[in-house]
Amino acid sequence: MLLPWAILALWVAAAALAGPLSGRLGGVQTNHAVDYLPASADSTQVAKIQDALPGGEATELVVVYHRDGGLTAADRALAAEQTAEVARGHALTGTPRPVPSEDGTTLMYPVATVEPGQDDDARTAFVDEVRAVAEGGGGLSVEVGGPGARNTDAQKVYGSLGGPLLYTTVAVVAILLIVIYRSPLLWLVPLVVAGVADALSMALVYGLNRGFDITVTSQSSAVMTILVFGVGTDYALLLVSRYREELSRFARPYDAMTAALRGCGPAIVASSGTVAAGLLCLLAADLTSSRGMGPIAAVGVLCALLAMTTLLPALLVLLGRRVFWPLIPAYGSVPRQRRSLFAVMGGSAGRRPLAVLACGGVLLGALALGAFHLPGDLKQKDSFSSKPESITAMETLAAAYPGRSTQPITVMAPTDRAGAVLAKARATEGVAAVERGRSGGGWTELSVAATDRPESAGERATVEALRDSLDGSHVGGPGAQQMDAETADARDLRTVVPLVLASVLLILIALLRSLVAPLLLVVAVVAVWGASLGIGGLVFEPLLGMKGTDSGLPLLSFVFLVALGVDYGIFLMHRVREETVSGAAPTAAALTALRTTGGVIASAGLVLAATFAVLTNMPMVSLVQMGFVVAVGVLLDTFLVRTYLVTSASVALQRKIWWPGALSRTPAVPDGAREPELLTIA
What we know:
Blueprint: H1 2-22, H2 42-52, E1 59-66, H3 73-89, E2 99-100, E3 106-113, H4 120-133, E4 141-145, H5 147-159, H6 162-181, H7 188-212, H8 218-247, H9 253-280, H10 288-319, E5 337-339, H11 341-351, H12 353-368, H13 389-400, E6 409-414, H14 418-426, E7 431-440, E8 443-450, H15 457-469, E9 474-476, H16 478-512, H17 516-539, H18 553-581, H19 586-613, H20 621-653, E10 679-681
Helix pairs in contact: 1-7, 1-10, 6-8, 6-19, 7-8, 7-10, 8-9, 8-10, 8-19, 9-10, 9-16, 9-18, 11-19, 11-20, 12-17, 12-20, 16-17, 16-18, 17-18, 17-20, 18-19, 18-20, 19-20
């Protein structure tokens, strides 16, 4: 009994070391739009050159004064006074000059500071100070927008995710565990272990950032926390279920836990390895944020595995049988039996497997058609669930200046050819005006105003025309950044998806020693992914009013649903193989596996879906969409694909499901030799 105490002591020491480091993770997170882009993108090069210019990267704002009935002379005087006050306190790129709208309702003042040594905190302070100075009243609205304000608002939104996300996730998991375990103490043990695993994963990710410069965003940190609690709780459910079963066979909890780990440990290790391998395929992504999310999420899964297979068993053994109070499993007792819902569901799938397969395939295919109704690409102004001031300012400008872009396109031209580049840019179709800005390091900054609205098809055409005609120059800015992100996401989808499928398939082939069963599981999870996106297409715009779809949603949802879906497939097919090896006939093996693992898989699926559903309460549309699609996909996988389709396929294929492995050549045993009971352990 010394081993559990030794394991507990090691984890206490690890937690003491990880605690201070985990608290530093928030300080290395980066959430600027350019930090998500590929390093080779044109807009990324623009941002890097801007940062190296005298004064560093400019913080560009637009102060918007608006009155519905038309601005008064007093309004204009107030605007001039307030912008002059801003100019007196900061080193600006130039004196702010008003740009009135044609209808006389709006006045915008472009304001940009290039004060040296500005970091995120300094830029946020500048935006907050301008907002404090620029105030309206009496029907005059004053809003501060522009790229600098939008970055500040995004930073504040991302910075607010950590606490609410963690608290909500813990609360959701706690409620579900209390309902599942029906014990006043047992639910707390896996929850505490998951919390320790989350702290360890944050410390390790901080180390990866310091040692290997891996990009850490608030989105990747949020996903890591979700995975730690989601998959960690799944592993705990599987282990505790097997442990409870073994306690009726062994007098000592230590022996029961040893048997439980031997029984379900291989499936847990294999499933976590498959999930981690699928996530690490994101390292091949071009988009910096996606490439960083791969190892970050994999660290979360592996930390959950380590904690749930070492710390959780140690705590359960030390707490003894009383941790299950009031439903304490007694040694030598015969578990109470009751009719199982999963036995009934499996029986219906077993009687007409081909019909069930056909109906399930048609249903998933029909749902997948909804993907064609997904709204178009998500624009920056639609990326927040609740609009911050910078977004409402953008909308005010779009309405007041319909013939002019209020979001500059930035061109970085070689200084020795800046004049020629400026002239060529002015002659480009779709360009309204070009202004020369700072110079340094062999580059000159040009600010281009397009004739079309920000993020419109016309602005995109202008960016493409500038890139085609201005050889040797770089074209960036918010609109160009959005274009580069969408291009990278499309390329990553073509690159990463085959890698994920190949890696998962190879691991399944090695684990199940079969080709047919792994192909079945992979096809099933791909079908779930398509159906989940289709449901999103039927919900996002018609019901939730979302104006666009995040360009990274297809790739990230695919990686998570395939990796996590195969996770459950391993639990089920590992038990089917175990029953088959022990001599069960094919039908009996499939139905017994469903009967014995169905409850655990259903509980695990509910927990994982609920943890991802927590993201739907976050203020970022990209997180809401990913949380919705993954949660729906996990539920489809748990209650339709695993219960009916995989079980039906196993019954229909009989021993062929293990082809070309040795099990496919084993002499057939009549199904009646070992018929599954329609009873299950309570």
